[in-house]
Amino acid sequence: MKPKLVLFSDLPTILPEYPVISIAGAGGKTTLMFSLAQNLPGTVVTTTTTKVGKTQITAANQQLTINNFPPEHPQKIIWASPSLQPHNEKIIGCTTNEFSQLAKICKAKNWSMISETDGAAQRHLKAPAAHEPVIPQENNVCFYVAGLDTINRPLNGEFVHRPEIFSEITGLDPNQPITAEIIAKMMDHPQGGLKNIPSNALRIAYLTHADTDELIEAGLSISRLLQQYDYVCIH
């Protein structure tokens, strides 16, 4: 069964009420997180189960430690993490137990949640390492992000995070050009874009940097190849 194509503006209409969303992959996870948070109704809590750059959380209207959560006067977008003090310029994320505590509170208050679940070292395509992505079972919507601007780029560390794992998963040799078919293979692979997704979660492929007609067509080509996603959004 092929996934359905949706516009970014339509995403809130296909999500469950007060969703618990995870975002993995590469090529615009933080932008997607805060764009979604702005467009979802009501209060939205943002967090991470990995780590994010210290400047990335400034898009939230409130930044709190989980010890000070929930706020008495919530604003539209809340950031919550164990600490707000950066370590090596990064904000450290929640353990699965801490995430579960946040999710329980959000559920009681009818707040949505969005979390980043892996890192990509500023690359626009990646393969997950053994320890990632960290997607707690509370997540009922899972986005996987890939940057279309990596098409025709060579498979190496300049453009792909963990290129050696990417090569193992897709069969593409190092320094060979990345194609739409290769990106689709990564996204549809159980050790790639489908890794650690809860069995009952909605699966959404999110293809970014569709800045030219050629890249839009490449995104459409990927959407036709994907088998294991419910929706594809090209943005």
Structure description:
With 235 residues, this protein is α/β, with parallel strands linked by helices. The chain has helices spanning 11-14, 29-39, 96-109, 163-170, 180-187, 213-225, and strands at 4-6, 20-25, 44-48, 51-53, 62-65, 77-81, 90-92, 112-116, 141-147, 202-208, 231-234. A nine-stranded parallel sheet has the order 1-11-10-9-2-8-3-6-5, with helices on both faces. The protein has a two-stranded antiparallel ribbon with strand order 4-7.
Short description:
This protein is α/β, with parallel strands linked by helices and 235 residues long. The chain has a single domain (4-234), classed as Rossmann fold, CATH 3.40.50.
The number of helical segments is: 6
**CA-based shape:** globular
Q: What proportion of the residues is helical, as a percent range?
A: 10-25%
| Spatial order of the strands forming the largest sheet | 1-11-10-9-2-8-3-6-5
**pLDDT below 50 for ≥5 consecutive residues: which ranges?**
none
Strand content: 15-25%
What structural class do the secondary elements suggest? alpha/beta
User: What is the CATH topology?
Assistant: Rossmann fold
How can the largest sheet be summarized?
9 strands, parallel
The CATH class = Alpha Beta
CATH arch. level architecture: 3-Layer(aba) Sandwich
Over all CA atoms, what is the radius of gyration? 17 Å
Tally of strands:
11
